[in-house]
Automatic annotation (TrEMBL):
Protein family (similarity comment): Belongs to the PEP-utilizing enzyme family.
Localization per record: Cytoplasm
Name by which UniProt lists this protein: phosphoenolpyruvate--protein phosphotransferase
Length: 325
């Protein structure tokens, strides 16, 4: 297997019927650059900036943040990197930062909610990103956006930091793209308002599954209870893909399922053409894509979504076998 994946490392991921799929990886540490080179990932679709905070003994301030982002962008070269702003709270806590105990941390004061209420840290992070990116492209993405007003406010913060830098004559990124994660179900019914506001979106299926099924992703008892390969989830994903295509907004999927061949097969069938995944998934997903007839798969999956079955895993498995994927 390993040897086979190495062989296709630099092969573009194109389906048998000619659809090009961009394969990116999820990352969070400097070390990941090496992994990117080894796996042939085309960029980083999700850089989890909270990792630096979680492995650090104290709060990384402006300089340390800037240095990390610079090294990541230097290492990535021409390959795009999407930096997600701090996704703290919930199950991600920092030993050196005082955080209130919450009854329901997954539903609590976390991620962009913290960033908007206590903007000092988010602004410092945006400043670090802008400084690190001077003269090159910068992609910033906000986590856990639940309403489009939150996205507007977060984007305003980027604009404020840009003006701050401009007034001081500091060089800005050559191109700035600001996006949102789609991982709160509320956004599913406001995509028509959200998509024109964002430069890109990325579907966080880990949290989207958690919130759609009201099932704690950290509780092992829930592991096999809710299947992402089920009509509710597939309809949710299909509606995002369709809305994004109609509005001309680039959209990717960056949850763990993007790295599992059968789930990735479904994502490709639904029309997603950018997948960001744990690096271990890249070889097997690429192999799947090279053997996949996207349009035939798309027609079959669309039909299946009308099913009254709770899970479609077995049907999808048979379909993949039938299509020789
Ligand atoms: C997600 O929720 O799917 C995601 C990619 O983000 P995280 O796993 O960091 O919450
Ligand atoms: Mg998430």
């Amino acid at each position: 297997r390993r040897a086979e994946f190495t062989k296709i490392k630099d092969t573009a991921a194109v389906t048998k019927d000619g659809h090009r799929i961009t394969l990116l990886m999820n990352a969070g540490l400097e070390f990941d650059i090496e992994i990117m080179n080894e796996t042939g990932a085309e960029g980083i679709g999700l850089f989890r900036t909270e990792f630096q905070f979680m492995v650090s003994e104290d709060l990384p301030r402006l300089k340390r943040q800037t240095e990390l982002y610079e090294r990541i962008m230097d290492g990535a070269g021409d390959r795009p990197v999407t930096f997600r702003t701090l996704d703290l709270g919930g199950d991600k806590i920092l030993p050196y930062m005082e955080m209130e105990r919450e009854e329901n941390p997954a539903l609590g004061w976390r991620a962009i909610r913290m960033g908007l209420d206590r903007p000092a840290l988010l602004r410092m992070q945006i400043r670090a990103l802008l400084t690190a990116a001077r003269g090159r492209e910068l992609r910033i993405m906000f986590p856990m956006v639940a309403s489009i007003d939150e996205f507007r406010q977060a984007r305003d913060m980027v604009d404020i930091e840009c003006s701050w830098a401009r007034r001081r004559g500091r060089p800005l990124p050559s191109l700035l793209r600001v996006g949102a994660m789609i991982e709160c179900p509320s956004l599913l019914w406001h995509l028509d308002a959200l998509l024109p506001l964002v430069d890109f979106a990325s579907v966080g299926t880990n949290d989207l599954t958690q919130y759609l099924f009201a099932a704690d992703r950290t509780n092992p008892r829930m592991n096999d209870r809710y299947d992402p390969l089920s009509p509710p989830m597939l309809r949710a994903l299909a509606s995002i893909q369709k809305a994004a295509e109609e509005s001309g907004t680039p959209v990717s999927v960056c949850g763990e399922i993007a790295g599992r061949p059968l789930e990735a097969f479904v994502l490709v069938a639904l029309g997603f053409n950018r997948l960001s995944m744990p690096p271990a998934g890249l070889g097997q997903v690429k192999r799947m894509i090279l053997s996949c007839d996207r349009e035939a798969a798309g027609r079959a999956i669309t039909k299946m979504m009308g099913s009254s079955n709770g899970s479609l895993r077995n049907e999808i498995l048979s379909l993949a076998r039938k299509l020789n994927v």
